[in-house]
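User: Second chain of the day. Same drill as before.
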Amino acid sequence: MRTQTPNGIAYKFLLEKPGADTAVLDFLRAAGCIVKKQPKIIQQDFYLDTYDWRLFRDGLALRLRHTKGKYVCTLENCAKSEGGKNDRQETGITAKQNFRDRCDDVPQEIMQKIKDIIYPRRLITQLTVRTEREPFVAITGDETEILVGFDSTAFQATGLNKPHRAERFFEMQMELQKGALERIDSVVKNITRTFSFRPSLKPTLKTAIERLDIKFPAKNPPDVLTVKGDDRLDVAIQKILAFQLSRLQENIPGVKADIDTEFVHQGRVATRRMRSIIKLFKGAIPQRSAVYFAGELSWLASLFGAVRDLDVFLLNLPGFLAEIDLAPQKTKDVLLKQIREERLSRLADLNAGLSSSRWRIFFLRLSSFSRRKPASKPLASLALNTVCTTAPLILSELFERVIKRGNILLGKPKLKNYHRLRIEFKKLRYASEFFNSAAADRLTPFIAGVIEIQDCLGKLQDTVFTKALIKSFIKKWKGGIVDPMLVFTLGEIYQLQQKISEARQAEFREIWARFDTEGTRERLQTALDTMQKRAG
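Assistant: Same format as last time:
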């Protein structure tokens, strides 16, 4: 593979094993080149990305390289090469310090390029690449200088990935240092003809991800846990619970490390989905198990929810303060400090819960329940019903309840009715997503409309929470010595919620007009017909 480099042109080749350097160097000497050995280079690369790899998914790699006592931060394009050629564009800036786990110290020039991609996520170190290079300079008869490097590279998964290493990787790189481009092309052509080296086509980050078998966070279950149309209901529930429990478990390290607010959010979502499936099909699993699991999931949901609500408030706070634009910076800093302290207190409660014997017992029981062999003669009355025969009835009922509740809301647009409708939409969304695979993904367009309304109702509910939070702070501070400007600022934020609430309610009416249509009913019915045909 030939690549553009800051100094000119470079080729990279795969080596099956170390030891090719002797043969290649002998070949260059026989061709009339003067070969000079250079000092050995050891470099360690730390690749940073968000927990869900937003930069990589956007074709970028953010690397912190440590070599010769210096750190250099580089943002490069790691898009797929075409025809063996990869012209990578790089932005490298010397870093003042090691910021491997702190995105705040990423050079501003680079942060400006990526902030819109990663917001509101934070950067973490995903993996480490250590390369030992044996470099040589080959000087041809016409004074062309070619840097020839033999690399031995080790890969290690770090951060929140399960720590492990991959087998070493060997490459040879030939880079033009001085002279004409045609000269290095000629030298490389002769070497590849002699040694049959394969070009190295992939950027280092892609190679590391593949060799370490890094698994990206997935919202869709693996095939073994995908709900099928002919699954018994109790089996379908086991599959859903097993996948959501794994989703919850994989986010717990991030919650405890408090690296990114998204871990709390995803943990809360997994908990909600498990609660929803148990409530939807409480007649398909033993009552005693359903009651126990529902109670423990309610407990977990309250712990996650207490933190998540404050996370949402903190994400919205800069926008609130920009709207009122009256409070001095000191007051804003005090307010931010108060909210963060409250969040840390609630996060401590959540982490205590996730470290408790109560959590361990619940996890073991639910894990065991989701893996056990289905009973041949289950006691639960709905257990033997199949997904395709039951899901259409459930989805139709949930849809009609949403429409009925929505019409009640239009007649009485009170906040409590918006909240009730939001709850019904969550049930409809979760059920639709649970059964989408059994409907050959025909529910996907319908789900998109459900999500649009749910998001709008969620933002409206945020205003209710914000007002309640402000009231709780005012009550807590009553009788104490509090900066009047702080109270004034909270009052302004409180008043702003009414403006936001009215805008969300107007937005809801527009979205609802698009949702409550024959087109929506037809999209749902198409999916239901697909399931019913499979049942037949």
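The chain has a mean pLDDT of 89.

User: Great, on to the next one.
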